[in-house]
Design brief:
- The protein is of the alpha/beta class.
- The chain has a single domain (4-223), classed as Alpha-Beta Barrel (TIM Barrel).
- It is 31% helix and 24% strand.
- The protein contains 7 helices and 9 strands.
- The chain has helices at 23-32, 57-64, 66-78, 102-106, 116-125, 162-175, 205-214; strands spanning 4-7, 37-43, 81-90, 93-98, 129-133, 152-157, 179-182, 192-198, 218-223.
- The protein has a 9-stranded mixed sheet.
- Helix 6 links the parallel strand 6 and strand 7.
- Helix 1 runs parallel beside helix 3 (66-78).
- The longest helix has 14 residues, at 162-175.
- It is globular, with a radius of gyration of 16 Å.
């Protein structure tokens, strides 16, 4: 049976300050590794972004999409599926948001003024989904968990220790939440990768979360030499 392989957590150098590789470089990289698709999850405007704060909202969103758009263009040439998502920050807590697009961001210029719970509710009301990324990072000062508002937990993150990932797994089990994984990759030189494999080709963020919920998304963990 064919397994379709996906990276679910990636930061480009165009949009995330922590990113070291460009969207084009990542597209070439993941195609060479045999992946079917990638979700670009750059840090949103309330996180570690390259986008200036003193611009009109539509200009900020245009800049925010540069990394994704560069990767999507290259991916289209290569036959690599590239999907739009983002990593929303609430203090030390980070939430991967899937299933919504650039138009949704443009239509909500007051987004950064929303309370975090309002953000979750609005995302869900408009058909999006939220995954709590690396909930137990070693370096954070305060662990903030909102199990009643998220759709899944990232229980494996390649940038975290085994202990942190075990805590994330325990959290997911305790609340009966679906589990997923992502490399949180910032550079093509990163050796350790993880993500999900599906028995079918995914069409986007909504399809991805449905696969996670149904059990069709199988977590993989691997290290390249």
């Amino acid at each position: 049976m064919t397994a379709y392989k996906y990276e679910t957590h990636l930061h480009t150098s165009e949009t995330s300050k922590c990113g070291c590789s460009s969207g084009k470089e990542f597209a070439l990289h993941f195609k060479s590794l045999g992946y079917t698709g990638v979700f670009v999850t750059d840090h949103f405007l309330n996180g570690n972004t390259t986008v200036p704060q003193d611009l009109p909202w539509n200009e900020r969103i245009a800049l925010f999409c540069h990394g994704y758009e560069a990767m999507e263009r290259q991916g289209a040439k290569l036959g690599l599926d590239v999907f739009f998502a983002w990593e929303y920050s609430y203090g030390w807590a980070h939430f991967l948001t899937y299933g919504l697009g650039k138009d949704w961001l443009l239509a909500n210029p007051d987004l950064l003024r929303w309370d975090v719970l309002d953000y979750f509710d609005r995302v869900h009301a408009d058909g999006g989904y939220i995954v709590h990324a690396h909930p137990f990072r070693e370096s954070i000062e305060i662990v903030q968990l909102i199990p009643g508002k998220v759709d899944a937990i990232e229980i494996m993150n390649s940038g975290r220790t085994d202990e942190s990932n075990r805590h994330a797994l325990d959290f997911a089990i305790s609340y009966g939440l679906p589990r997923t994984a992502g490399s949180d990759i910032h550079s093509t030189s990163q050796k350790k990768l993880c993500g999900i494999k599906s028995s079918r080709r995914l069409m986007g963020g909504v399809d991805y979360i449905e696969a996670v919920r149904s059990g069709d998304a199988v977590i993989f963990d691997e290290s390249r030499k």
